[in-house]
Amino acid sequence: MKLSFFTIIFILLSSLCYAESSHKKYGFVGHGALKCYEFIDKSKDYYLRDLIIHAWAQGFMTAKNTYADLKLDLTSISNEEQIVIMKDFCEKNKRSFVADSVEYLMLELKEQQIKGDK
Question: Is the dihedral of CA 6, 20, 105, 70 positive or negative?
Fold first, then answer.
């Protein structure tokens, strides 16, 4: 009985920690669940934070490439420029999630890839 009770509590608490995008497309955890205003907050040590968030973004995009069969070239835009694109999105959409900025970045990567294929 105790195991069942703790299992139920764990499931309930886990569901509270589950974040969704504003578009309800997917769930995400970790740095992608941060709000954009937290990503662009300059009052904190932002260089290391940017690298960590970008590493999360690379993992997220790699997974989407693998499981959604997108075949995006994640190197067609430099890492530094990818961070700039994500931050620009967040400046305009402060209440969005960091994961939304990554979705936007993926659109930019796709556009870059289309230009390169011509």
Answer: positive
Token digits of residue 26: 């997917």
Please tell me the pTM assigned to this model. 0.72
Taking the C-alpha atoms of residue 22 and residue 69, their distance in angstroms, rounded to an integer, is 23
pLDDT tens digits in sequence order for the chain, 118 residues long: 444 554 444 444 443 444 444 445 556 677 788 899 998 987 777 788 899 999 999 999 999 998 887 889 999 999 999 999 999 999 999 999 999 999 999 999 998 888 776 5
Give me the DSSP letters along 53-109.
Answer: HHHHHHHHHHHHHHHTT----TTSS-HHHHHHHHHHHHHH-TTSBHHHHHHHHHHHH
Centre a 10 Å sphere on the Cβ of residue 41 and count the other Cβ atoms it contains: 13
**Fold classified for 30-117:** 10k-s Protein, Hypothetical Protein A; Chain A (1.10.890)
